[in-house]
Amino acid sequence: MSHTGIEVTNEQVALQSLRWNGHQLDLLDQRLLPEEIVYLPLETPVEVWEAIRHLKVRGAPAIGIAAAYGVFLGIRGLDARVDELLAEVQKQADYLATSRPTAVNLFWALDRMRARAEALASAGVNAADFKQALLDEAKNIQAEDEETNRLIGEHALTLFADGFGVLTHCNAGGLATAKYGTALAPFYLAKEKGVNIKVFADETRPVLQGARLTAFELQQAGVDVTLICDNMAGAVMSKGWIQAVIVGTDRVAANGDVANKIGTYSVAVLAKAHGIPFYVACPLSTIDLNTPTGSDIPIEERHEDEITQGFGKRTAPQGVKVYNPAFDVTPNEYVTAIITEKGIVRAPYNESLRSLFE
Ligand code: MRU
């Protein structure tokens, strides 16, 4: 039992990355999974910022949702006029935007909260209605994400046949979103529909989102999942066990270059070498037409401890130089298709991605 959190057993509650409980944001502490299921009660933007930065909540859509609630938490206790509340929304959104740089969903969700606040202020609502409407906007972002992911799953499943082996990297599942996930959504739908898919989950160094989160949530749901180390992907492909790869993404550039968890690029190259399709699943909120190419995507670098002493045991010499980028960019030529809630698009991505927004 955590000192600050509420511990629950698997039987008591279906896993949910975050939920508004009427008073605060209850956030599943993903650092503790799979061993402990602890919901942290978050009551301030600082707590939300800290949760995002330290991976208590992670995954592009989930951090956007958390940040949206964070904006509301920043204004709900203020006794202020609407113009003052609007200024505070802008300030908190700017602050929350500094929590992590790569996933564009974070900035998308914050922009949506800003835009809603500006529209409410222009409409001349009172302070109580302003606050309520911003809470509702955060709830809407969360609810829409669930609906969006189900649609992504429906489209993605059309690409898989009964008996397929499908490899995934990192965690783009229910834990990374409001529900279902993006890349993992077709596996949940396949289970519902009785379609037999064998999932291979890369463990995903350095902090093991594949082992701790993907293997965990799929196993909980009764999906057939096999955990492998990252350096085994080529071997299982060469055995003929993999018919498709599907991953999520933190940002898709206008030309179809895809930023995702470090190691994704290597998987894409391996897939191409084996003639295996490489699919990327994401909501439209992850597609950033304002970022022309993958080299324009800011790539987060994280603390060396994740590599030298992740999980409490030192596994590298003191003082060794470390490079720890959290994401890499897969060039568009490796991306067979991008699966969104509006359907499946293929190259040339400059045109097909733009058409999704028309
Ligand atoms: O560092 P993380 O765990 O936030 O990285 C997450 C990923 O790379 C996911 O694949 C991506 O955010 C898509 S989640 C639907």
From TrEMBL:
Site features described as Transition state stabilizer, chain residue numbers: 170
Catalytic activity: 5-(methylsulfanyl)-alpha-D-ribose 1-phosphate = 5-(methylsulfanyl)-D-ribulose 1-phosphate
MF terms (GO), sorted A to Z: S-methyl-5-thioribose-1-phosphate isomerase activity
Protein family per UniProt: Belongs to the EIF-2B alpha/beta/delta subunits family. MtnA subfamily.
Pathway as given in its UniProt record: Amino-acid biosynthesis; L-methionine biosynthesis via salvage pathway; L-methionine from S-methyl-5-thio-alpha-D-ribose 1-phosphate: step 1/6
NCBIfam families reported in the protein's UniProt record: eIF-2B_rel, PRK05720.1, salvage_mtnA
UniProt KW Isomerase keyword: yes
EC number, as in UniProt: 5.3.1.23
Residues at the active site: 250
Protein name according to UniProt: Methylthioribose-1-phosphate isomerase
Signal peptide coordinates: none
A Pfam family of this chain: IF-2B
InterPro entries: IF-2B-related (IPR000649), IF-M1Pi (IPR005251), IF_2B-like_C (IPR042529), Initiation_fac_2B_a/b/d (IPR011559), M1Pi_N (IPR027363), NagB/RpiA_transferase-like (IPR037171)
UniProt gene name: mtnA
Keywords (A to Z) from UniProt: Amino-acid biosynthesis, Isomerase, Methionine biosynthesis
Job of this protein: Catalyzes the interconversion of methylthioribose-1-phosphate (MTR-1-P) into methylthioribulose-1-phosphate (MTRu-1-P).
Organism taxonomic ancestry: Bacteria, Bacillati, Bacillota, Bacilli, Bacillales
Residues reported in the UniProt entry to bind substrate: 58-60, 100, 209, 260-261
Any one Gene Ontology BP term: L-methionine salvage from methylthioadenosine
